[in-house]
Structure formats: structure tokens, C-alpha cells
Write a structure and sequence with these properties.
This protein is an alpha/beta fold. It is built from twelve helices and twelve strands. The structure holds 4'-deoxy-4'-aminopyridoxal-5'-phosphate. This is Alanine--glyoxylate aminotransferase.
Length: 369
Amino acid sequence: MFGPGPSNVPQRILEAGSNPVIGHMHPEIFEIMNDIKSGIQYMFQTQNNMTLAVSGTGHTAMECAIFNTVEPGESVLSAVNGIWGERAADMAERIGARVNTIVAPPGGFFTNAEIEQALSKYRPAVFFLAHGESSTGVLHPLDGIGQLCHKYNCLFLVDSVASMGGAPLYMDQHGIDILYTGSQKVLNAPPGTAPISFSERACQKIFNRRTKPVSFFLDLSWLANYWGCDGKPSRVYHHTGPVTAFYSLRESLAVLVEEGLENSWERHEKVAEYFHAGLENMGLKLFVKEKKARLPTVTTIVAPHGYDWKEITTYIMKTHNLEISGGLGPSVGMVLRVGLMGCNSSKASVDMVLMALKDALKHCHKSKV
Ligand code: PMP
């Protein structure tokens, strides 16, 4: 599974998920949820008490972040350098926010000066940024942006679905107010749970809203109680937590803790460099020009000239039993995307992908024009 997600699930995590189902309100499950909360705090590098996992995929966490922090009529600013900024803008529009965007071409990113200019012009309540833009392969720099948001009294919302665990991110130090990820990328757990955390500033805004969030399911007051984050002595039934998904999420966090976050970042960086050098040696071009802005977990390769990208991905799947993918949103037709996440981030995986790509370029149809 070398697409941009899901990634392969190791046996240890699969086995954890195959344990018997027990009631979602049993004390044993609460203990597991507490472990998950600690694991997420470590992975996110945050002390936030309001840290939990939403039942659902990355999109559920996106909606949880936006639906809770934004009220109708409020201003939202979304940084669009791929599909994720577009989707965040769409979600905010659906709940009646006044949405503005800053736009960079696919493969590009924003300077702090550009971000500050937009913050001062639109005065948003929330600013959305994708740390790992998986549709274009960009790793966005984070330094100083949280501080800028706070200067303009704005909450800083970051999507780290594609980057979390694979590239340095310090939620508290970076001044991030809302951060979320997914289970099926670097964590190598099955899709279906989405870690999320809210800063004290974010909670202040959320718990002093004038209106109720549009979603009952994603209402943070309910989720906070279910996850034991609201200080109340007992937890009340909200929804039936996906207990087996909690088992695997907990195990995947344990794997990350055992390796150590910094070791994981370093491994992803080294393996990505090895992969990128191998691609360039084959004469292929990387889509993201600036080296430091290349996402180590998802690589975008300029679609090889004269080939049909779909024939390449289909050939590699059929002949080598490997999944790689084409572009997404604005990068469709422009790139091939290869994900090397969690246990898949290894030199052995890179060698497999490079061999498959070489073979595909030899056997797929190449037009002469
Ligand atoms: N954000 C980013 C950066 C992603 O890569 C993805 C998944 N490709 C999502 C959000 C959405 O996650 P999901 O597919 O789990 O809903």
C-alpha cells in the first residue's frame, strides 16, 4: 500500500483490533481511552487536556474542528494550496461562515508575510492550514504562524492527517489551537478514528458560543464528556464508541512511543531523501521544487512525459501488486503520488517502488509526440 493512505497495518495492530468487543461504557474501555489520550498528547507534543479521538475518518475531525470553533457569520480564512484548503473552506461555508482564501499554485506554499497580510485584511476567527498537503506533496513550514494568528486574535487550525508522526510538529510550541490527524497514515492503524486536540484558547471560544454547533455527533461538549476531558465525575452515553478501532489506535500509538517521535521523523526524512534521489537518478522529476517543502510521507512525482499516468498505476498494481496513485484535485493528471508512511517508510519499500516504476516505464505505452 504505497498510495497516500491507507498504509499497511502491521500484524501487531491488526491483532489488537481483533480482541473481543466489550461495552463502550465499561471501565476497561475508559482506561484504553485514557491511554489513547496520553498517546495523542505525546504524538501532538501538547499538554492540552482537551485531547481525544473522534469516531470517524480525517474528514470527521475536520468537521469537528470547524463546526465547533466557527459560528454562522464569522470570518474564516483558508490557505488553499491543494484540495484540503478547498474542503475546509467548503465545510465552513456550509455552516454560514464568511470564507476567504489565500491561494498558492499546486506545489507551492505561503510565506508568513502573505499570511499576515490576509489575517490583517480579513480578521478571521479561524485560520486553516494543511501541514501536509497530500494532494500536492507539500510540507508547509509552521514557524511563527501561530504567533501571527494570536496577534490577530485568530485560532490556528492545522490539518496534519498526512504528516503527523512523519515530520516535526510541536502543537504547543507552534501555537496551534486545533490539530487533528487520521489513524490510517503514519500510525498504520485501520481507517476510522481521528485524533484531535484543542488548546485552552480554542476551548474558551467553543464553550462560550452563542449558538449550538450544527452537529450533535461532533459537539465538543458531548465528546469532552465521553473522553473524560470535562472534569465531570461520570461519563454519559453519547454514541457507541468503535471499541475495536480504539484497541488498534492504542496499539499504533504504543508503536510510535516505542520508536520515539524524533526517531520516526528522522526515519521518514532519510527514507524520503533516499527515494527522491532514486527517482532523480531514473530521470524523473519531483513536483515540489523546494527541497525543504517536500512532504516526506507523500511524494509527488511529475507525471512522466508521454505516458498515461493511469496506465502506469494500473500496471504497477497488476504486475507488482503495489498501490501507488495519481493526483487529486488540482494535481490530477500532473503527478503520481507515492506514500511511505509508518512501517512502510523503509529503504526496502523504496527499492520495491523504484523497481516497479522502472518496469512500468519500460512496458507502458509511450507516445512519440
Ligand atoms: N487531510 C489530509 C491532508 C489528507 O491527506 C486526508 C486523507 N487523504 C484527509 C484530510 C481526509 O482524511 P480521511 O480520508 O481519513 O477522511
